[in-house]
Amino acid sequence: MKAVQIAAFGGAEALGLSDADMPSPGPGEVLVRLACAGVNFIDVYMRSGVYARSDTYKTPLPMTIGMEGAGIVEAVGEGVHDWTPGARVAYCLSRGSYAEYAVVPAWRLVPVPDAVSFEQAAALMLQGSTAHYLSHSAYPLQPGDACLIHAGAGGVGQILIQLAKLRGATVIATVGSAEKAAIAKARGADHTILYREEDFAARVREVTDGAGVHVAYDSVGKDTIHKSIRSVRRRGLCILFGASSGVVPSIEPIELAEAGSVFFTRPHLADYMADAGEIRGRASDLFAAVEAGRLDPVIQQALPLKDAAEAHRMLEGRQTRGKLVLAVA
Ligand code: NDP
Fold first, then answer.
1. Of 108, 205, 208, 234, which residue is least crowded by CB atoms under 10 Å?
2. Architecture of 2-127+270-327 per CATH?
3. Residues near ligand 1 with C-beta < 6 Å?
4. Which SMART domains match (predicted)?
């Protein structure tokens, strides 16, 4: 089969199609014939070695890239009784989706309703589940809450804005350009801030009458985290969940005290997708919202699998305006 593999950590140029051995499902596993793979920032971290020492996301070399996919069950391994060949499925957090076939632990799969396309399913499993756990679990937004969402025109950002609005929150979104501000607004953001030009912490105080937000969702990391902490109201929560601008090396505890006894967390999606029930619960909420017309997964572009390197360049080069997927079949 064809797959996008790397032999060493490095830049996007290493991503090319190669021949790989067809995987076969072991006990508790399912072989999925992929229709499309989702492209995510975690793929960039895995390709470049950011997670080389992570216990949660292991990155053994050589490695097939891709942590999200949708397609058809081709075969099941020993002991798998809840899936049969031909079922429409999607998943995330299992390696190797930039390929024609992938072996996935059965408990990670969710059924995809007929009304949801494979592209939409692949767009929602990782970024959608992330937006879902951030807005429903890590900080369950309530009507009247104010939240700050960085990179509001990005993949996670656009879904998070929509879910936050469905929960009745006021959304302040930061974005890198005026064009992206229009996108965040179209998704429902109440306020947008051009954070490369303006002091976003000052603007957040201004639009919240000096109080700050109940929760800051920070995926940008190094460039924004200190101001994100200072944008949160007394005893509010700052959630650092990404490193698009670089990894945050450390936070001084006193910084949290001085910002108003702010709480701080740095979650992994895997800890909020801990078992089959949690994974299926989030996916069925997201798919139902799509079917009801309340959530738009915003597919920016479907590129052929052979163009994986181009997809990574777009993601790293701040060119995404929604979800990139790789069409496999
Ligand atoms: P995005 O589509 O959001 O792309 C990243 C965006 O970050 C860019 O478009 C850009 O938006 C902004 N950005 C700011 N500074 C930089 C920089 N120096 N280089 C590149 N981009 C920058 O990506 P995803 O939706 O795929 O992922 C968003 C984040 O969420 C990632 O950091 C990812 O790691 C994280 N994540 C975390 C998870 C978790 O559970 N912890 C799970 C899933 C994703 P702009 O131009 O508007 O500034």
1. 234
2. Alpha-Beta Complex (3.90)
3. 40-42, 126-127, 130, 151, 153-157, 175-176, 180, 219-220, 223, 241-245, 267-269, 315-316, 318, 320
4. PKS_ER
Q: How many CB atoms lie within 10 A of CB 317?
A: 9
pTM, two decimal places: 0.95
State yes or no: pLDDT of 60 exceeds 90: no
Do the bridges between strand 232-240 and strand 213-218 make them parallel or antiparallel, or are there none, so unpaired? parallel
Each residue's pLDDT tens digit, 1-55: 999 999 999 999 989 899 999 999 999 999 999 999 999 999 999 999 988 878 8
Residue to substitute in 220, 298, 314 for testing ligand 1 pocket (most ligand atoms within 8 angstroms of CB)? 220
The ranges assigned to domains in the chain are 2-127+270-327, 139-266
Taking the centre of ligand 1 as the mean of its atom positions, its distance from the CA of residue 221, in whole angstroms, is: 9
Please list, residue by residue across 243-253, b when 16 or more beta carbons sit within 10 angstroms of its beta carbon and e when fewer do.
bbbeebeeeee
Within a 10 A sphere around the Cβ of 194, how many other Cβ atoms?
Answer: 15
**Spatial contact of 164 and 147, defined as CB atoms under 8 Å apart:** yes
